[in-house]
Structure formats: structure tokens, C-alpha cells
Amino acid sequence: MTKTPVDELLINEPRIDAKPLYEILNMCSRGYKIFRTIYVAVQMGLFDILDEPKTSEEISRELGVNVKLACKICDVLCDLGLLNKVKGAYRNTELSSLYLKRDSLLSQINVIESLNEEFKVWNSLNAALKGKPTPINEELFFEKRVPALASEMLCGELQRTVRIIAELPEFKRARKLLDLGGGHGLYAIAFTKLNRRLKAYVFDLPRVLKCTRRYIEMFDAERVEVIPGDFFKDDIGAEYDIVFLSYIPGGKNPSLIPKIHSSLKTGGLFINKQVFYHDGEGSKDPLLDIGWNILSFQGMRKADRIYSFKGDVPFEGYIELLKRYFSVIKVVDASQFSRLTTSGAKSPLDPKMIIAKKRS
């Protein structure tokens, strides 16, 4: 009897093994399930009650959850190194106590919440692919992102950044600083803690500054004030000793350079920490660029690479434009301490911190 192509399909294995495909799909499936497990554990307050050991029965009673499922969730978290299990009782690891409890000053729960929202955004990829990115008001977008950005910065990047700047002789003499597009204001707050004679101003959109005020109150920052406005349209002030920027939208736009130059005293510092691109280079991670293009800001035109906007110039061009107004003192490779870098892997981004001085 002659075998038809359908018969061959049932008898002979495919020409190409499907294993590599299933390895990818299993990685995706497992990664999402792990995230949901951590997310739910945070939501139900599991880590908040496990500084002391508790059995699954005790956890079930205290949180009002299913005992068998709670046990399995705890076992998964043990495998991830987020819980320890000793004699049938579960307890936080140092990592969880520091970063996954709501009452910790270093809690990363805002970051987890932000990731959860980001996953929802990716459901709109099909529409973006058809030329219909999801429009969003940029002021609302940044207002929602500020708590997560603040949490991320507190994990090392802020401290390493301010230590570098605090060593500059100009910083030690500074009396007035502008944190332009400063969002959470943590940089401005930290600068005033390191220089007791410094007064700092955080300039950002009005809705964003509601979050800034909360951090100012939290850290009892008496010498930090806020200025509401749009730095592309509004006056940003004058007579600053230092103007500081960190990862702000449009931070690589040439139009800001003369405006910042005019706002500084002679000899003042302009410090700009941004993700820069080089001529002809991209972000080296298409997934980052895809996510960037799913949303469109209503008031700003984004470019196609992550953290880039229309009018931005590559690093080499930016330095040349900067030299028309400033003397470039130093360029710091921020990839060694940036929150944008994945530990143990080569960063697909190229964050740099440029320190420049206004010429007399």
C-alpha cells in the first residue's frame, strides 16, 4: 500500500528536531510563572510575615490562603533563594528581608508592580506593529514610573553617582543646584546631605512633583524645593552652580545645551548621565526597542531606539556640540553601576556621565 504524505507524517520523524523551539517556549513559560509566583507572594504580604520562621499551616492561618498551595509557593521561593526552609518552617533570606518587604526602605515592590504593568503593555504589540501604538500622556506615564525608578536607584546607582560628583572641588563649593527632570528628587536630596551649604531644586512636570514632595518629606530634606514646568518650554531658573540630569527624556537634545549654559554661573558644572548611542549603532537588544515603540507619548516624539527621542544626537555629535559652550572635564562609563545594566552580562545600552564646566 502506497504511503501518502499524511501517512509519512505519522511514521517518520520531522526533518528538523523541535527541541530548540521547545527550549525557548519552556524558558518563556517558566519565566512568566516564576514572576507571577513572586508577584502574588508580594501581593499577599508573604515576605512581610517571614522574618520569623513559620510553617505553611501558620502562613495559611495568618494570610487566609490555601495551605497546600501556600506550601508549594514557598517551595518555589526556596528554590529561587528568596526563602529558607528549616525543619518544616519557612523564613526570609537576607535578600528578601531587604528588598521584598513593604516596610523596608529598600523595598523593590514598586519595581515588581511596574514590571507587571509592563507585561500588560506588551499585549498591545500587535496594534503597534500595525502602526497604532498606544498613546499615553507622558506626564501620567512618568508619574506612575517615578516610585519604581526611585527604588531601582537606591540599589546602588544613586550612591555611586553622588560619590563621584561629591569628590569634585566644584561640588564642595556649590551653593545652588538644579536637578533637571529630577522626578523622585533623590539625587537632589542626596546632594544636600553631602553638602550642608547646598540648596537644591527639582524641576519636573507638576504631576511628577507630587511624588517628589513625598520623598522630600520622607528624607526630611529641608533644603530641597520643587519647580513645576516643562523644561523645553519654560524658564528653568538661573545662577546655578551645578545643573544635573539623569536619564531624562530629551536629555540628549541639542536645544537644551544653550538653555542649561545660560542658567549656570561662569565656572558652573553641567553633569549629564544618559544612555548615549554611537553613530550607526543601536541598543543591541531589539526587545528593548520593541517595548519602547509599543507606547507613544502625546507630547513628545519618540525615536525608534529605547530612551531616544526625535532630535537626539549620537554621543560623538553631542560632545562636539557641548564643546561650543563648555569644557568637557570627564566622561564616566556609567555601565559599571547603572540600573540599566544586567549584572554579569554585557549591557545592551551605553550609559555615560559627562561632566562639563561653563567657560568664562
Average of pLDDT:
92
Structural class: alpha/beta
In DSSP terms (H or I, runs of 4 or more residues), the helix count works out at: 15
- The percentage helix is 40-55%
- Uncertain stretches of 5 or more adjacent residues: 341-346
Query: What is the radius of gyration?
Result: 25 Å
Report the principal-axis shape.
globular
Beta-strand percentage range: 15-25%
Count of individual beta strands: 11
Strand order of the largest sheet: 6-5-4-7-8-11-10
What order do the helices and strands follow? HHHHEEHHHEHHHEHEHEEHEHEHEE
Largest sheet: 7 strands, mixed
Termini separation comes to 94 Å
Question: Mind explaining what this structure looks like?
Answer:
- The structure is a single chain.
- 31% of the residues are buried.
- Helix 12 links the parallel strand 5 and strand 6.
- The termini are far apart.
- It contains 15 helices and 11 strands.
- The model is unreliable at 341-346 (pLDDT under 50).
- Helix content is 43%, strand content 18%.
- With 360 residues, the protein is of the alpha/beta class.
- Helix 6 packs across helix 8 and helix 8 packs parallel to helix 12.
